[in-house]
## 1
Amino acid sequence: MASTIDEHAQSDISADVFAEGKAIRLAVSRSTHSGWDAAVDRADPIALLEESSVGRLPSLIPIRYGRMSASPFTFFRGAAIIMASDLGTSTPNTGIFAQVCGDCHLENFGVFATPERNIIFDINDFDETLPAPWEWDVKRLTASIHIAGRVIGLAEKQCMKAVLTAVRGYREQIRLCAGMTALEVWYSRVDAHVVAQQISDAALRRAAVKNGKTAPAYTHEMVADEYTEGVGKDRFIADKPPNLFHPPADNEVIVDAQQVMKRYRETLREDIAHLVGRYHLADLAVKVVGMGSIGTRCAVALLMAKNDDALLLQIKEARPSVLEDYAGKSRYADHGQRVVAGQRLMQAASDMFLGWTFSADGHQFYVRQLSDMKGSVQITAMSADDLTVYAKLCATVLAIAHARSADAAKIGGYVGTSETFDDAIAAFAAAYADQNDRDYHKFLKAIKTGRLEAKEG
């Protein structure tokens, strides 16, 4: 009988919260999310990019701009600060906060191993994570879908279909989460074999499946063999410029690496700290990563326990989230801790080596295992069908991630059961893709006129 009473109580609570979410439409109707009109006083996108480059390694900033110049999609990936400004100053806000990714685009999802060595599909980048309106993630994700569709040559109708499918997937999943218990939401995940069954992308299938079963495809031993040379105590990280190299002795990226690693161990769970303590720091090299992160301090650390026992960690600089000016400051003084806390809250399972640290010269970092059993898609090689399927998978995962920190019933009540919200967001995504095209051409002009320096790398 107690169980039945609890179920009724849960149902009543959910109905009340659904109603609260639905009531928000009176102040912020779902259709107000439709379209995009740039404000008259909209911030100069090039000035925002220049602002985001302050404090980065000067020698790598031109490489960042060079990589961003490849297409409107690569530009979008590297320009999170521009969309953060637009979302924060010129779009409606439901007032429902969740822990958001902050840079939610198609290439910030992928497959990776849980600590139990199961392979799952989830969000995999949290540099900009912060509590903020949940719809900001949805808008950035859907804009990325429409932009990616254009880059791979799809018709506008096909781009729109992929976006609509994604938003419907988000809406349906968030309402499913609203009917779950807190623990059911917490345990929800998308297994890699589901991705492999639905998408034909060869690289992602190889990462997710081996011999027909979910299995590791890129273990830490394979990573060590790829990134290092030598044997035993003489093992070292192999230079592979321009993406991996040892800096000159007078140009250290992490000035007190041994102490940085000591501080990192202090943030780990006791058993994991004990495990890491069995290793010693053998080598450190600069790694040029991603798109928006290029120029921030990032290193690969080679740790050795025995002659043939290597562990590679990535030490990545954590800077203030691009959302802070619009959603409020993080409650964490250390941005490495902000990233780690956000990742643990949003992901179904996180890297057991995830921790944070800082260097003597004031830079903050988070640390994670490098490339262990990870895989991602090549968006530019996708077909229209693959893009549509993949977009829905990403949106489904995003809904689960939001439900871990926000009230899914309130979001579910707001988005409702009709396609009103879907249509509004699809219209926004198409209009914002146009804005991104305009900003991209301004960016190329800034390079051509010499305002920004770009080079290959």
## 2
Amino acid sequence: MIIVKAEQSHLHQVTNLAMQLWPDNIESELRADFAEILDSSTDIVYLANAEELSIGFIHMSLRHDYVEGSDSSPVGYVEGIYVDTVFRHRGISTRLLAAVEEWSRSMGCSQIASDTELDNLGSQEFHKKLGFEEANRIVAFIKNLS
């Protein structure tokens, strides 16, 4: 298994994995988003490849705005991480995270952050296993103006 920085030539693999993580998205829109992300100087995507298959990815962005629980700026932000179910529990997420941690340090970050939904207990446990500490809990509200 190897970790590689995703390039435009990997757009199809990245989009397919992202659709597994975010199945409610429209594939063409997700593909367009990742086409921009792969050329961004403030984002990076790494792929985990095994047996000539892309089996996982991580998308990290660089945030200069306030990040919940952070006391520094910029902060590396895990926008998404996914490993195919067949390949889980093999340390792949740990290796993907190590790659973006190194990138984040090179971009001047002293912290990385992530988030998940309040009811996604599996993701919360996953983050804790990777060494994240819970920073806060919020409930977001919105009101439409007529």
## 3
Amino acid sequence: MSGGPPVRLTNATGVTESGGSWSPDGSRFAYMQLHNGLISLMVVKTSGEATPVLLREEPAAPANPTRIPEWSPDGRWIAIFGRPSDGPARGTWTLISPDGKTVRSLEQVNGGEPAVLSLTFSGDSQRLYGIRAEPDHNYLFSIDVNSLQEKIIGDVGRDFTPRTYLSPGVRLSLSSDGAHVLFPSFRNSSSLWMLEGFDPPGWGMELREMLPW
């Protein structure tokens, strides 16, 4: 933050590395890696040019776009989205401990929330927040981390579906007071116009319209 040249986080070569999340003490970073058709959750020390450690990997699936992992403020969990080999055919959200030894599936919460592009923790790590995109609604909801009970907070409106041009790129960010959540969204629009003042088409244009290709 004081300036100077950037420092590469990992020493991995020949792989694609995507965005991730800091551990609470800033000493480690969790991110997703794509290599040889596998998508992997990696953890690496933030000392620079460090060797990453594999926590989990699975076959990359176009139907399950990569989500950004989220580290809980208390350091106990990393929320990730994926489809482990012993899990359901579609992707689900899962909580995994930073050492990879403990895994809690969110399968019982709306089937693991496959339509949710990002989850973020509350400041006390007791709740997860997400936005579920449905055909006519975008519901902001919370999940109790211990009981896995879901609560619908409200509908943010059809015009505010979490989306981004980057993949992965959707991330929910909770304000420090826990009162607001920030996320990216965009809307496409198009218009049909009639233009005047152009010269009529010449013989070359007419000939091109007559050709079969």
